Amino acid sequence: MIIGIRQKLLLGFSGLLVLVLVMGALTIRQIDSLGGAIDIILRQNYRSVIACQKMKESLEQIDRGVLLTFTGHYDEGLSSIRLHEKNFRNALQIELGNITLPGEHQKAMRIRALFIEYSRVIDLVTDQSQDLSLRQKRYFQTLLPLFQEIKQFSGEVLEMNQANMNRANDSARRMAASAHNTMLAVILACAVIALLFSFQAHRWILMPIKKLITSAEEISRGNLDLVLDTTSNDEIGQLSRSFNDMAATLRKMRKTDMDTLLRTRSATQEVFKALPVPIAVLDQNGEIEVSTESAENYFGLKPGVNVHDLGHEWMTELLQNKEKQEYGGDTLGNKRYIQHFAGNRESFFLPQAVPVPAGTALILRDVTQIIEQLELKRSVIATVSHQLRTPLTSLRMSIYLLLEERIGTLNSKQAELLLAAREESERLSHILDDLLDLNRIESGKAHLNIQPASPFRLATEGVDPFTAEARDKRVNLVNTVPEGVSEVMADPERIRHVFANLLSNALRFTPPDGSITVSACEDEDNVRFSVANSGEGIASEHLEHLFEQFYRVPGQRDESGIGLGLSIVKEIVEAHGGTVGAESNPGTGSIFYFTLPVFSPSRA
Fold first, then answer.
1. What domains does the chain contain, in order, with CATH numbers?
2. What are the pLDDT digits (tens) for 6-17?
3. pTM of the model
4. Three-class SS state of 292
5. According to the UniProt entry, where is the signal peptide (predicted)?
């Protein structure tokens, strides 16, 4: 018959269970015996001891009260006598109801009879109608002997119960000692059986499991060639055989996987090399594991080479700050690109370090075409703007001359058309100015005169030109910027342009009797300027596009512009090292804000 681990465990635990049951039965028996002894002490004798002590104490107080009646304190003594007579009777009643020892009843009844006589004599001794000397004589001849006799019998009853309590206590101690020895013996037996069971469990279970653990650790280290002993027929033996089968299957799968991996890796490397984008995968130390041909040709990123040895400072900086994506170079939008010359061709790449398991993927996206398109756009805008400015100036001059009627009188219809033409020419002139400003800022040709400036003064100079227009439109324009705000690093002229764009937009979209509030507050190392209006507000889906070039919120009037004002604001503020943004909900107005860095000597 095959004995499995389950049967072995049941056998060991059954022995322990039997011992526990025996120990429990003995414990209950001893506890019951101890409980009986304690019950004798508490229930049978303790109440009698307390009752006898109270009787003796009450008797002493009664005798004291009798003596007080002899010394001129009659009322006090009589009150004490009556009180303690009652206490004595209560204690005597308890004793009579708790008779447990042979001879105790006779003594208790004797105390009762004596106290009845004692009470009668007290009445005679305390009778004020009797002569004091006669009362004193009765006290010493009759009352005092009764007092001593009652006290003697109370003491005897007390000693009887105390003696029985001592006997019960000794019996309880003997029972406790016997229970202690019995429990100790059972505990030692349980310990011996537990040690034997533990020893057998170590042989039956722990040693085979340790072998399995060691084998599993070997497999985790890649050793699939080991074979376990499978001589036993219990569950451990079955597990060992299954373990050997699993190792054989893993060996077969590993060989298949290795063949597949080699084929896949070879194909992946060939495909990876053919990618047109320069890409290199690095390990944690910066050594190149695989790269594309374009990465090798442009930047020397060959497998086996460490990128730190190539001398590209921007590449080292990029890898050190891959979490922040910060590195040197020119900017493209919010990111930075690098310039590279290969042969007679200038190329631009946007580097990116992407964390991958146990390494980094270095990706260099070719943005040459984007850069060239931006340069072409700037060139076209500059050329077109300059070419349009001369004929536009002549056109504006001609309109002004016609409106002044120096070459002839105009009828009302002609004057109306010329006024409209003047407004449109002025609007076109502003558009050209915005295009030129934007082009200069983007190309870096718009130099900033950065200096420490007071936020209060910047806001005041920005608001003052719009005070009259706001009054004419019945709009309450308020400047709440306090004078105590820290100075900022700013070009005052450019910031006036920022305020001009924001305030002109606010006045355009704020209805009569509305309000526009300009405010500023310090936000860590920056000062945040806000222009809030009570207009109709802007839907949330348009907020993220407000600062894009040529973006206009659908439904706006034609005179609201072509969508360059806020993009110019964004370029100017970001050139200062600040940020811009907008907050709005339809029907609750809008808040446009920008930040400027606080002045400090290090920034200066």
1. 17-197 (1.20.120.1730), 275-366 (3.30.450.20), 372-442 (1.10.287), 450-597 (3.30.565.10)
2. 666 666 667 667
3. 0.41
4. coil
5. none
